[in-house]
Design a protein that fits this description.
Number of strands: 14
Helix content: 40-55%
Largest sheet: 7 strands, parallel
CATH class of the largest domain: Alpha Beta
Radius of gyration: 23 Å
Shape: globular
Order of helices and strands: HHEHEHEHEHEHHEHEEHEHEHEHEHEHEH
Strand content: 15-25%
Oligomer: single chain
Strand order of the largest sheet: 3-4-2-5-6-1-7
Number of helices: 16
Length: 402
Amino acid sequence: MSFSTLGLDARLEKSVAALGFTQPTPIQTATIPAALDGQDILGSAETGTGKTAAYLLPLLQRWLATSARGHALHVLILVPTRELALQVAEQAKALSAFTEARIAAIFGGVPMGAQTTALRRGADIVIATPGRLLDHAERRNIAFATMRALVLDEADRMLDVGFMPDIRRIVALLPRERQTMLFSATLSPEVVGLAAHVTRHPARIQVERTATPPAIEQTVFPVPEHLKAQVLQRLLREEGMDSVLVFARTKHRAERVARQLQRANIRAAVIHGDRSQAQRLAALDDFRRGTSRVLVATDIAARGIDVEGISHVVNYDAPQHVEDYVHRIGRTGRMQAAGRAYTLVTPGDEMVVRRIEIVLQHKIERRRLDGIDYRAPALVQPDADAIRRYVETHRQAHTSGV
């Protein structure tokens, strides 16, 4: 099948050709015809499968076919992170380049002024994070009466970060007569329950890999917790570690890993939930340009990162769930390009690794690095919490005159 057989508007076909798309991916082949017919969709597809265009193209086609002109909300797309909002908005603009569609990205972490202007001016497609959208709705910056389609993208992650109450509030504001599409990397019971709440007799489309792409070479590095930084730095000095995405478990660990790399003269940027929007964009831009060879990220902040040519993914901290492992390492080896995924595994992580291997149905190669003394004892580190308590106690004593 080619895009020319899908019956798309000539302006959309022109955009598709300009982007270099020739044949639709499996998720696009399955989704576009059903969505063009106006069906609700419950879709399961991982990152890098062409999911965004799978829903944007039919929604743009249906918008172009509407008799009403002028600019008013037609499509609302909810996403879990600001990065994904920007990514989807960028692709929407590219696919609608030869139309007059107005696209607005609405997310937190930045002032509301420019977003308010865009909404009141009239936006045909709005891509939004739930919290900021509700902020605008409460200020009456956006009306939903003309809305004809709703998309919930990466629904599993929206549930993970606690957006369910916000989603319910938003859905209550929307017209009952609408087309709804829900996409998720996994169809957990919670996601299926959400779909039952927001869709009507959806076409169920599942393009979900039960294993990671064969193009990704996977390796596990057993290592004590206190040697992780040393192993990571040694790995980053190996040949071919050109563009590396490193996953850390928490925001504080991500910051610490980035600082350690910078002290070792390894160009690294960091992205997590406490970074401002300007800091996130600067970090992503540096990583895309190669100014930073390494980007350290948390799972949630990494949602929506769309960087071509990532040579390696390194799990500095092993993920807690198999789905997270598959999603993380899918950042490399995209569209069948070669990629490598390394996971640093402490003794406490072995159970997680075994679960991953059961799902993947194969053993992951184990490797140790030369020049690392794996028997070296951990240095006794000062108890940071105890130090803070000591300082605070003496500050209070000094203030009270004791």
